[in-house]
Amino acid sequence: MKNILKIILIGIVAAVTYKYLNEQDIEVTSQLQKAGPLLENISEKVKNLLSETEAYSGSKTELPGDLLEKPESTTVQESKPKPVSPAPTRPANTQCQVKEENKASEDRTSFRATITRSVRKTTGKPESKQRTVEVKPTPYSPNEKYEWIKAASRRYSPNTWHLLMTYDQLPDFIEIINHNESVVSSHKPAKTFDYLRGKTRLDHILYMSINIHELTHAHADYMAMHQYKEQGRFYDMDSVILCFYINQHEEYNTSFPREKLFPSKKLASVIPERYRTFRYDTYIEGNNSTQGDGVFGLMDEFHAYYIDSEFGMDMYPAFVEVCESKEKALIEWIRYTQSGMEAYYEFSFFIFEYLKYMKKHYPANYRELTANSSFKQALKRINNLFVDLVINFLKKIEHEAALLSRADELEVKLDKDELVLTRPYDTRRLAVMDRTRKILHPILQSDRYDDIKEDLRSDY
Fold it and tell me: Where is the composition biased (Basic and acidic residues) (predicted)?
């Protein structure tokens, strides 16, 4: 009898436990699926960091596979989530210790602010018109732990800090008359430090870079609207209108009819597999502004990567502050900065391919675009500044390598696209430029785009 009661009791406990676990499993899985794109993008960043670590340490580190799996749908799966292995650590005594789980995604679209326009006719109810549909950032609460990175940014990168402060001073709400006499209104898409995260100062440098990248997008869109308002001009919801910030004395205001552009995914038919580098999926076939805004969406990204790469270049002294040696500071700085520098080659390639396709398939629209002086001036200026930045990045590495080589038993040199550190007991290599440059640099230097360059009357 006692055994029967025990069996019944065990059955009841098992049933309750099973029900509880199922409920909990559904909730956890649901949350994981909501965070799916962010986890996937974070895993891309971790993959990059690990590949660089392997090149530097000479050892292979396996990445947990779970973070790389993209949810197939938003339907709640009732299966239990797979266990995720702990994030691997970096080799001791070779790099500053930073936890991998605090790394942010290189794919900035996971952090993009939602920009919503409300369009109201002079009579009738307002109707909502969505400008972009992307993940809204977590609200930021001022915290003392971010004061160091704010001070360091202001000190070492005054130009990017000026962009943040200019954006900070814009009104929280803008209402303006559209060209068809309807009323267009918009709230500020993000707060000035919405994207700051992390626990360590190295984390804060990385997330400030992401913050600057995303605020560059927000500034380009919202500042353009603000300027139209201040100048008493009619706004045009049917055009792509952007303000490209260069410095406090220089910016380029562009406008072009959206109907005369085409989505970047059409380039999938002309870009061979061998040229589909890291950012191809996100910006050519992905669902973002490069579909609705075409080449201006690509330019917007080109510009944002330039500004946040400028920040990365400026922040080398901050890495020296944070890391315990100049050797470690140089290694961390390269690892944090190189991906943004490589974006130059990708977006140059994407933009030229877009223009080449447009010239062939939409010749009338192409002629109108290449007659747009503000477009040509902005593209030329951003391109030339980015070229100079990449050159100075490589020169800075050579200079710092020469200084490090003065230390006993250490020889540091830049060998093509690798930093080589040699001691009597070992030689280690760190990628300065990844495969992206090797793949795209030759085609950018070929005669493939000579006709486009001539049409732009540019000295690329």
Answer: 98-110, 124-134
CA angle 23, 28, 31 (to 5 degrees): 130
Say if 56 falls within a structural domain: no
DSSP 8-class letter at 91 = P
Identify the band that residue 455 occupies on the pLDDT scale cut at 50, 70 and 90: very high
161 lies in some domain: yes
In angstroms, how far apart are the furthest CA atoms of the chain? 95
Q: Which two tokens stand for residue 139?
A: 């609200």
CA distance 301 to 289: 9
Q: pLDDT by residue (tens digit) across 310-321?
A: 999 999 999 999
User: For residue 219, what is the enclosing H or E element?
Assistant: helix 201-230
**175 inside domain:** yes
- 135: DSSP letter: P
Q: Hey, is 265 helix, strand or coil? A: helix
Range of the domain at 121: 106-456
- Angle, CA of 299, 303 and 309, to the nearest 5°: 145
φ/ψ region of 409 (left if φ > 0, alpha if ψ in -120 to 50, else beta) reads left
Look at residue 96 and give its three-state secondary structure: coil
Domains of the chain: total = 1
pTM: 0.73
Between the alpha carbon of residue 441 and those of residues 304, 336, 444, the distances in Å are: 21, 21, 5
**Is 430 in contact with 335 (CB distance < 8 Å)?**
yes
Show the tokens assigned to 405.
Answer: 């080589």
Where are any strands of DSSP class E within 41-161?
A: 116-120, 127-130
Q: Are 375 and 240 in contact (CB under 8 A)?
A: no
In a domain, 328, yes or no: yes
Q: Which two tokens stand for residue 56?
A: 């530097």
Decide: 177 and 230 in contact? Cβ < 8 Å.
no
pLDDT digits (tens, 9 = 90+) for 61-90: 332 222 223 333 323 233 333 333 333 333
User: How many helices and strands, by DSSP H and E, does the chain display?
Assistant: 14, 9
